[in-house]
Amino acid sequence: MPIRGDRIVADIEAIARFTATPGAGSDRPSFSAAWRQARDHVLAEAERAGCHWRIDAAGNVHIRPRGVSWSRRVWLSGSHLDSVPGGGDFDGVVGVVAAIEVLRAAHEDGRSDVPLEAVVFAEEEGTTFGLGMLGSRGWIGTLDAAALAGVRNRHGKNYWEAGADQGASAERLAADRLRPADYAGLIELHIEQGPAMWKHDHRVALVTAIAGRRQYAVVLRGVANHAGSTGMDDRHDALAGAAEAIAAVECLPDLLGDHAVATVGRIAVEPNAVNVIPSRAEFTVDLRAPDDDSLELGDERLRALVAAAAQRRGLEHEIVRTESLPAVRLDGPLADRVRAAAGGLGLAPLAETVSGALHDAAILAPLVPTVMIFVASRDGISHNPAEFSRIDDIATATRLLAAVVDADPA
Amino acid sequence: MPIRGDRIVADIEAIARFTATPGAGSDRPSFSAAWRQARDHVLAEAERAGCHWRIDAAGNVHIRPRGVSWSRRVWLSGSHLDSVPGGGDFDGVVGVVAAIEVLRAAHEDGRSDVPLEAVVFAEEEGTTFGLGMLGSRGWIGTLDAAALAGVRNRHGKNYWEAGADQGASAERLAADRLRPADYAGLIELHIEQGPAMWKHDHRVALVTAIAGRRQYAVVLRGVANHAGSTGMDDRHDALAGAAEAIAAVECLPDLLGDHAVATVGRIAVEPNAVNVIPSRAEFTVDLRAPDDDSLELGDERLRALVAAAAQRRGLEHEIVRTESLPAVRLDGPLADRVRAAAGGLGLAPLAETVSGALHDAAILAPLVPTVMIFVASRDGISHNPAEFSRIDDIATATRLLAAVVDADPA
Description:
The structure is a homodimer. Chain A is α+β, with helices and mostly antiparallel strands. Chain A has two domains: 5-210 and 327-405, Zn peptidases (Aminopeptidase, 3-Layer(aba) Sandwich); 212-325, Alpha-Beta Plaits (2-Layer Sandwich), CATH 3.30.70.360. The first copy, chain A, is built from 14 helices and 16 strands. The first copy, chain A, has helices spanning 5-16, 33-48, 93-108, 134-140, 145-149, 159-163, 170-173, 196-199, 238-251, 253-256, 292-312, 332-344, 360-364, 391-405, and strands at 51-55, 61-65, 74-80, 116-121, 183-191, 204-210, 212-221, 225-226, 261-263, 267-270, 276-277, 280-289, 316-325, 328-329, 351-355, 370-375. In chain A, strands 1, 2, 3, 4, 5, 6, 14, 15 and 16 form a nine-stranded mixed β-sheet that branches. In chain A, strands 7, 9, 10, 12 and 13 form a five-stranded antiparallel β-sheet that branches. A two-stranded antiparallel sheet of chain A has the order 8-11. At the A-B interface, strand 8, helix 9, strand 9, strand 10 and strand 11 of A face strand 8, helix 9, strand 9, strand 10 and strand 11 of B.
């Protein structure tokens, strides 16, 4: 199957034009007009490549060659088209385009029976509804219809309201779940989004584990008071407490081992006036580590450091864990298949790594044998308009994907 | 002149009802509908007390007994009606109501010639247009028409556009300035807004100095990147830098002596997403000290600590000083008059203090002999709906004001 970089570039550039912020990176929340345009581009390409498609109740798109029925056991490959605000043009898109390119190359070869289903997962990033991987979690059933009715986008619409025009259906969700037996394995191709591969000139790598993630909403409550006439000893300054906690969160990974990271990405204070001591500060914490023991230790330390910063200033505090996803070890036999395919393409020894970022692959891994293939990100820049990966590297990874799926699944 | 607490309460309660947030404290930005209703209440009371009034080009209201012409040299007393968002019902209002109560008491006594002008300064707080004491600074000429055209409220209207319906006029400003010879002195009555007087049970105090204030806008710029796949050593996290700086700002007053305070009241980050390393953090600093040397030292240390936090993380930084008001020593002879009047009322020895908060009095002090009289604030709470001062204490302070102004100015 002749994988062609020029078609891959054309798809990435076409999808990049579907954004709420032309010229300033990708802004493509799930179910938005820009997201739908991107999805429709993919569907049009799939139809031209002789495929049929369906949208499941969670809003994910599934695409197979017309010669492959929906009941046949196949390989699954794909990723997402939604982006963070001010995001890049490669995150997620590369994995969708790679799967489509394999289907396109097979069609060009006159192959209408390649055992591959391409998938576009809805809302991976978590910035549209405040929680990530909603499409894959809805599909496998770890989020039910009520849970998805409880998240809202910035227009105040819940998942079902936002997705109704695009095939999402709360009513059908329970009946339209993933059947693991339908899939021999998931191979998700994605950009690394970190600097390690680029630094070491690893163009393509096999991912053997995905770090677990815990997210938290932290609230500190003090007393609003006049910034001029309240002595430093008489204050209950919620932002000063938050600043101490955020500085401590930055040091937390030192305790948790090599691949742990911790990030405070959002903060808001009230009343947010230049001359008023803040009465309330709310911030998020995103904590990741490659094993669950480290996550558990991080959880304990986080609670202790927030409590200490609050106590020192007479603040009330509250920590809500908004998400907890365990670390995931990917599938050994499928990883061996990828290594063997790499050997066949002259790519051995293939670099191997751990994903610090979460992906839909982590959601499906407990149910379907799963691996990921990473493509190097220039300088590790991601979630940023400057995000970039070499087309040659994406094409190489796509050839590796094609070699894996061009074998009848057992 | 019989000063009556019941009338003072009635005014404070009436004005408190004019707010954009009923039941949640005062929210009365200058020139808003709520502010205008409060001002109209004061004007109606003044007219009932036999007064005439005018609005100067900067939007400040001036009220005199009808028997006192605009050219006569008089005492000046008043404060402001605008509030911070989520503010209290006493800040500013007490000083306006006290001056009105003296005019009302004089009128009741058949005195149409008491040499007192009540004043309502426009926009003292600084939260409406991002800069404080605009009315008094416009009146004395330290802000000209162009400067006031350069500040905008949250509706995007500049000072002149927002104030046009309420008497403000850029065209008249240069000709309608304060003439210092018209005023024998300014006595501004205000709540303390700090805990010191309440702690020591000082009901009323003479203010002999006002701390100077410098305000800053600080911006840190890093790189937006993925919170999961970017190692801690590869980050340029603008919020982590801001947190270190904010924690250091909290410690800054320790270096600057007893009455110094420093506050970070506002913060905003971009892109403000749970799983993206912040690329930009912007926060304000409000620094106050009772003498200019301490302010200068604070300025130096602030710049150094921001630069250090930025450098450690490879961030760009920028510090803009948005306001610089020197510390003000109040008028000695006028303070002696207040002490003498306190003696006559059995209030000697009158407590004396320094104001950590800035006031319109600090703006007029270089041009007109000025003092302030403070009323204790319960637990020092201010800029908060829980703000409270005893009506008895306000009435005592108003009697002191009446005793000072009930003497022909020299």
